[in-house]
């Protein structure tokens, strides 16, 4: 009987690990941006384009950051946010 090949496992790339200090600093910057109601540009793990908008809610229970963009309300996992910047225009 011929050998049946099993499909190979496909592993999703893991997000880079960050230490507690980096996560705390990112959290503080997100809170500050929400309180100031300023527009931010968020670099998201495994997304080709950054997300630009205003942070409207930080949900501690679900660990989601709610960002109001021009098109929609985006709910982004906190750990997927790699960087926060202010737009240059």
Provide a descriptive summary of the structure in words.
Helices cover 19% and strands 34% of the residues. The protein is α+β, with helices and mostly antiparallel strands and 89 residues long. It has one domain (20-85): SH3 type barrels, CATH 2.30.30.100. It has a five-stranded antiparallel β-sheet. The longest helix has 17 residues, at 20-36. It starts with 19 loop residues before the first helix and ends with a strand. The mean pLDDT is 89.
Principal-axis shape: elongated
Count of separate DSSP helical elements: 1
| Distance from first to last alpha carbon | 67 Å
Number of DSSP E strands: 5
Q: What is the string of SSEs from the N terminus onward?
A: HEEEEE
* Arrangement of strands in the largest sheet: 4-3-2-1-5
List the helices and strands and how they pair.
Elements: H1 20-36, E1 39-44, E2 51-59, E3 64-68, E4 73-77, E5 81-85
Antiparallel strand pairs: 1-2, 1-5, 2-3, 3-4
């Amino acid at each position: 009987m011929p050998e049946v090949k099993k499909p190979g496992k496909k592993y999703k790339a893991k997000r880079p690990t960050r230490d507690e200090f980096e996560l705390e600093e990112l959290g503080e910057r997100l809170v500050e941006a929400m309180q100031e109601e300023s527009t931010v540009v968020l670099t998201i793990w495994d997304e080709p384009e950054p997300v630009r908008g205003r942070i409207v809610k930080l949900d501690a229970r679900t660990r989601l950051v709610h960002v109001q963009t021009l098109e929609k309300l985006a709910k982004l996992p906190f750990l997927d946010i790699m960087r926060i910047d202010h737009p240059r225009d």
